Amino acid sequence: MVRIAIAGGSGEVAREVIDALVASKKHEIIILSRNGPGLSNPHNLEWRQVDYEAIGSLTQALDDIHTVLSFVQLLRDPENKAQKNLIDAAIRAGVTRFAPSEWGSRAAGSTMPWWAGKDDVKVYLKQVNANAKVLEYTLFQPGLFLNYLATPHKTSDHLTPLNTFVDFHSRRAIVVDEYDAIMTFTTVQDMAAVVAKAVGFEGPWPEVGGIRGSRVTVSQLVEIGKRVRGGPFSLDTVKLEDLEAGRLTATWTLEAQHHSVSGDEAEKLLKAVLVGTLLSSAKGYWDVSDEWNQLLPDHQFAKIDQFLEKAWTGKP
């Protein structure tokens, strides 16, 4: 049994992982929260209220913890102070393992500024371990959640359906001229199951922890869409240089938005997310590695064709 602290445990991806951990019946789970348990605590888990500005109290909250899984919302963590304080507190408390708030692409770079904090935290983790390993960590990177290709239909318990630049519902896609990007798609359920197994993994954690459900090119994905949806897809082609200049020349943009962002901020973010996802795909940032596939060879991942056929059968 491992004692696990979940930072940002009220988030959607965190709740998917919590469900998988609870289902394993192998670990003790503690939720770290700024606000306490609130109204929803279906598993009756222990909650510890924390102040991410106060390293002393954070250290105390982690005193008996073996593994910390972070789902800190990057948009609400200016300068990544909360995660860096969490890392410092974990080291002081003698935590063995740490997973930062990744849960997506293998990099962000300048293409996805809303996720730039991920790269900053990676650098910080390397710095704290520069002279000697004081904290074992892994970067859980499942690529894009396959569930999003079923939008607007909900295919998991907690994840909000969000559309992408390949829109199965409206049978359309935006492609980058001269770039047939390679994408990794993993269901949020598979990601959560792998994390639950990784927590109990007896060997050392790999620093880069790729989780690869399916690896396809955008053109292959469009072909799957044609078969699954029973008809052609309309294609908008955009140029890399326009995207790099922040220009979106496609005839449509993203529509579904996350509940944590609203109003004018949401409209700006939707355009930025679409431009950034297209750019990052062209640069190969969604082609993640498969370290956890190799370390957990018995896990059977959902196949992209079968998942999408089931999600769209009988749907208009």
TrEMBL record:
InterPro entries: NAD(P)-bd_dom_sf, NmrA-like, NmrA/Isoflavone_reductase-like
UniProt protein name: NmrA-like domain-containing protein
Signal peptide location: none
The keyword Cytoplasm appears for this protein: no
PANTHER family per the UniProt record, alphabetical: NMRA-LIKE DOMAIN-CONTAINING PROTEIN, NMRA-LIKE FAMILY PROTEIN
Family membership noted in the UniProt record: Belongs to the NmrA-type oxidoreductase family. Isoflavone reductase subfamily.
Lineage: Eukaryota, Fungi, Dikarya, Ascomycota, Pezizomycotina
Organism, as annotated: Lasiosphaeria hispida
Entry superkingdom: Eukaryota
Domain NmrA-like: 3-239
SUPFAM superfamilies per the UniProt record, alphabetical: NAD(P)-binding Rossmann-fold domains (SSF51735)
GO function term, MF aspect, one: oxidoreductase activity
Keywords, ordered alphabetically: NADP, Oxidoreductase
